[in-house]
Amino acid sequence: MEAILLGIYAFVVWLIYFKYKWLPWTTTHQVTVVVIPIVALTVLVLSLNYFAPSSADVRVIKYVVQVNPQVRGMVIDVPAAGNLPVKKGEVLFKIDPTPYQLQVNEIEAQLVLARTRLKQSRELAATGAGNRFDVERYETEAAQYQAKLANARWELDQTTVFAPANGTPINVQLRRGSYAVPLP
Q1: pLDDT per residue as tens, the chain (184 positions)
Q2: Under 8 Å between Cβ of 97 and 180
Q3: For the chain, what are the domain ranges?
Q4: N or C: which end of the chain has fewer CB within 10 A?
């Protein structure tokens, strides 16, 4: 690019000073003709280094999606390999679901018990043998277990981590047996 610009400049100087002789070829003009391209090329090179830097170390800037699990646990499977494309929704890795499944089972059992106690306390309150406060307490307890169950099921679903977008996993350092934790 610099050579092309110097060639165009030399052609213009030749036209002005030698072909059409619009200006005389004096010492002042000779110094000016030499200094202008030196200053112009210096400014061009420095500005290109700033606005369009080049390097032997090539870097590609791309949109990056960080993938972090929502739950903690032992990684049991990593089907996504590094540098191979994945589609949105494909499984990247799986965390051991056993503790989360046990938690769902436990909360389901507690919810069944709370609903049974709620039913019994309603029957007792309807016959006048039970307390209305017990009914309210078991209603609250059943609602709490229902919310805990929804959260436990969500955590169980989060043990399988899917690709959030189409792309290529590059720096895959995750291995089977690693312990994954959610980042804050």
Answers
A1: 788 988 999 999 999 999 999 999 999 999 999 999 999 999 988 888 777 767 777 766 778 888 999 999 999 999 998 899 999 999 999 999 999 999 999 999 999 999 999 999 999 999 988 888 999 999 999 999 999 999 999 999 999 999 999 999 988 889 999 999 998 7
A2: no
A3: 2-51, 74-180
A4: C
